[in-house]
Amino acid sequence: MTSKMISRRTVGVWLVLACGLHFAKADEGMWLFTAPPRERLQADYQFTLTDEWLGHLQQASVRFNSGGSGSFVSPDGLVMSNHHVGADALQKLGDEQHNYLRDGFHARTLAEEKRCHDLELNVLVSIEDVTDRVNAAVPADAAPEAAFAARRQVMAAIEKESLEQTGLRSDVVTLFQGGAYHLYRFKRYTDVRLVFAPEQAVAFFGGDPDNFEFPRYCLDVCFFRVYEDGRPARVPHHLVWSQTGVAENELIFVSGHPGRTSRLLTVAELEYLRDFAYPRVLEYILRGEVLLTAYSARSEENARRAKDDLLGYQNSRKARQGGLEGLLDPRFFAAKRESEQKLRAAAGARAELQAFASAWDRIAAAQRRIGEVALEYRFLEQGLGFRCELFGIARTLLRAAEEQAKPDGSRLREFRESGRASLELDLFSTRPLYDDYETLRLADALTWMAGELGFGHELVQRVLAGQPPRQRAAELVRGTRLKDVALRKQLYGGGTAAVAAAQDPMIELARLVDAAARAVREVVETQEEIKRQAHAQIARVRLAVEGTGNYPDATFTLRLAYGVAKGYEEAGRPVPFQTTMAGLYDRWEAQGGREPFELPKRWLDRKRRLDLRTPFNFVNTADIIGGNSGSPVVNRAGELVGIIFDGNLSSLVLDFYFTEEQARAIAVNSQAILEALRRVYRADRLADELLGRRGPA
Amino acid sequence: MTSKMISRRTVGVWLVLACGLHFAKADEGMWLFTAPPRERLQADYQFTLTDEWLGHLQQASVRFNSGGSGSFVSPDGLVMSNHHVGADALQKLGDEQHNYLRDGFHARTLAEEKRCHDLELNVLVSIEDVTDRVNAAVPADAAPEAAFAARRQVMAAIEKESLEQTGLRSDVVTLFQGGAYHLYRFKRYTDVRLVFAPEQAVAFFGGDPDNFEFPRYCLDVCFFRVYEDGRPARVPHHLVWSQTGVAENELIFVSGHPGRTSRLLTVAELEYLRDFAYPRVLEYILRGEVLLTAYSARSEENARRAKDDLLGYQNSRKARQGGLEGLLDPRFFAAKRESEQKLRAAAGARAELQAFASAWDRIAAAQRRIGEVALEYRFLEQGLGFRCELFGIARTLLRAAEEQAKPDGSRLREFRESGRASLELDLFSTRPLYDDYETLRLADALTWMAGELGFGHELVQRVLAGQPPRQRAAELVRGTRLKDVALRKQLYGGGTAAVAAAQDPMIELARLVDAAARAVREVVETQEEIKRQAHAQIARVRLAVEGTGNYPDATFTLRLAYGVAKGYEEAGRPVPFQTTMAGLYDRWEAQGGREPFELPKRWLDRKRRLDLRTPFNFVNTADIIGGNSGSPVVNRAGELVGIIFDGNLSSLVLDFYFTEEQARAIAVNSQAILEALRRVYRADRLADELLGRRGPA
Questions:
Q1: Which parts of chain A have pLDDT scores under 50?
Q2: pTM, entire model
Q3: Which is the most buried residue in A579, A638, B497, B525, by most CB within 10 A?
Q4: ipTM given for this complex
């Protein structure tokens, strides 16, 4: 696990909180493929959802493990996602001479397709309900620590069995926050090559100011191809490209991987998010954004090195601010409190539910305990105090050696056998690392930690080792040899003895904080087990009171959403459901072409070749959230009519509750992609492949 | 007091901490004009400092009350300061059609000189030691609350008397953190007009990346003129312009207004800065910087509106990060601890000092108590929870009505009679206010406060009044009528009844939090009185142990610093003491002219007219800090050879201790200013006035 992933997780983990069942309304829902809303679709849209239709969509959907969604768009392994989902790979492929993230890329032949450093794509092949087996392994009267250990052990065992039997990546996922456990099997693709990306200026036209806004004019797409045995993979399912796009009020479906929602947290958990987690994660984001903005201003090369991380911070900032705004709406809390009261009253009033009536208080107590250790958890275990890639690598090596000596079921979950291949892909990545950039981030992290935990904190003192943070960071980055991938492989293979013998300063830093980090993680994991059990009880109360037929909170697993292409009203004025290519040029002109509203030269030169009436972006009412980026939008026939790339500002509360008054998902129209490929990029070969008119050769 | 000043103060107040006496070394020292380092100058530089030389420099020095320094450079009231000191005035003079801050300004005739909205310049006319009178008014056995009240009362009385007798602005300033009290009398100039400013691109060439760096190439100057009775004021003292600039190793003097240093805080106070104040003020800065950067990206006009504030955040960020780095150096604390131990031991060992030996513990206890209320103090009293101009105006109106009904000596200090004229200048300023910008900042402040004090905090609940922050902020800004200056005057004249009758929502918001804000302020002021008394005792211990002959910590009062023009070594390489105009073009080319390294068109067009060998910027060892910006640099003859505009990164620890190993002040060379005025701007009239060759007509 690299520190990049640590930092990602940091943003995410604050939101890892329990949820449960509730009643979907209107076009609400991030539905499991095993429990799709057949009745609603039939009743509301006279659409009969068949197993065949659903299975095809499932296997044409692709998960980007760097964080995002995508789909197969040709039988020869061609994958489409967003430019901003591919940005991580584009960033890593770049160097001092090549800025693919900014300038785009176009492979005119298969031979020119560029292999990504560490991109893993997953396709969900099968789903199995293992709830009973997981719960049976956890004794009813076990203390939380023992319950957590037992649950971890049985999950690892199920995964390992499945991996050995099928060769497929096998993950037991927790749904309904502990109400259900499903075994997901994925086909992994790790030879992934870049085929085409537009310039960032048009992919992310309007940049941060227009992010989460509509109307929009973004060609937020890029194309990869998965390979097997050195040849384009033949994939059994891909989406047929629609040349007619989408009509107003047309029913559409979105198949993708929403990352995280928190819709059915208890009031105590939501208060924690509002009063602690969100404000703190925003500090993290603001700090990173300013650090990288200032670094980027110093030179073009700096800007290139920091670009993808900076985009991530900016995007998270807007998303979290929007979420916090939802949390700070007293009407939202009043409604939450009322519905919680009703459930608690119901539980208290029914004999068969009375044992569950204390579940809310148990969650509140667990949340308080988590709050007590939250600061140390963030800095020591989640790695905010050491934010740089090299620390992440060092910790992975240190822990892998220790964990892999243990039985599979007793390891920290990220070191379980079934996850080994993905972990190694990341650990041995050949992506470039830059000393100055690593030092910059590590120095900032050490400074921040000293301010938050206090300079007098015993571990802070030992971490700084008598030096000011910047000096200490420079020493660590200069001293470590972990940039050398061959050395990483050697240490990883050599176990604890080899890791200790290396006397690498970054590994020794990881070792220095490891006992404390593990201790605080154990506290959090134990409290989360308590919450998991309580949430399972609340889910049963809901089931008794409200009945069945719902969907779990998002967990970066495949979900089906649906809705209609539809505009909305804002400040009394109608916002039409789609934009056209003409609008792109209008906005460019209105902003005087200033950054981030500049257009690539070829978009200006080739304007007259474009049909400016081509629909560009459109909004719809499907229920999505971060992680859905890159999700295919399909029509009743299952044809691809667009690709999700954003939600509007009003959609940012979807973390907590669904609304379709103004909240909208935003997609690129399939017609705009074809038009741009042919007229601007002269990428007829690629366009023809999308239309099934030729193979990839 | 506008909220702009509240927010400025906020950044500053965290640093309002005690200091004392210590031993100056090398070219160290921010010397009082009443106690200049005559012996050192004689011994080290064979320079005889005469009263005449000193008095002339004092009265040619100008304080910018918006925060900065300057000097008279012609007998007709022409004042030179930095572009970044004038930025506040330039910003306020701008509108949708005029961006003087970005584009510069050049009045070709007196009639074209533009009157500033609310700029006040002060010239220090006389200094009187009133220590005995102040201390005599404070009973030795008074409780801290009573001591604070008595001290406030006598200071106000001295000031009022002086104002009535002389008509001059009269401020009793606290020096040596309570060791001495001086009465400063200032001539005020409030009809200040803009004469000339270059484009920001060249004034601040290199922008944030090059800020606090050297080598530099900035024309960071602008010119104002003070008027009296509608005509240019004839001023008795001005600096003669040197056409030869400065030579390497030449002795130079800096006369200006260093804002705040914290060199002799106790260890307990420094720990508070390190572990609380600096990390928290950085949060404030990062938050503001991201907010305004994102707002600015949306349109040119937004960028114009936010520019000066954004520059302020960026500058503070680098300054505070540099200061924090100093605080996080364990060697610094080790030295501090050792010297404190020595003093404490000396106090304990001498009978006449034994009563003072507990001073350090009393300061530590007071600091702890301040820390307990710090969060509420920041948000409620310092106004971080309401950061916008309109709230500042509302609070001033509310409090002015209440305070002015009290005896002068019992009022909150900012409402004392002697400060009335300056307060009114600010309160009735005609500077533009923008609803969207006010709403943006207020909404962010409310959101932040809810996160920090907790949404459940009773006052937070009442402030939000059942609405989410953004909605509440919009309602307040839309509802208030305080943008109307005539209304402000009416309410200000009408006392509490008129203020209440106005039923203005922003004033009612200020009223809602006022009791709590005043209460927490009282706690802080009482603890500061305790610290003041303890610091006075520590000062006496120092005097007994170390002897006399030193300077107080900076307090934005006039000081004399000196040093030599001299390069330094960095990473083993020599950094020459000055740059030339050729270097400007070299750096522009090396950075490809990308922002913030772009040059105004006329600088490119007129390059060949310039003598590129002209010295541009130079560094020197004078002891300066923020507030010294715009300070004249003079040679032995008292001629102006440059103007201070920055310090290098190594100088940022000067808050806490002096060093001249690498720390340097950075100045614009007087020759570069003339060269640019004549060759680039064709401002021969202004250049001739600087050389005394013609009047201002």
A1: 1-23
A2: 0.93
A3: A579
A4: 0.91
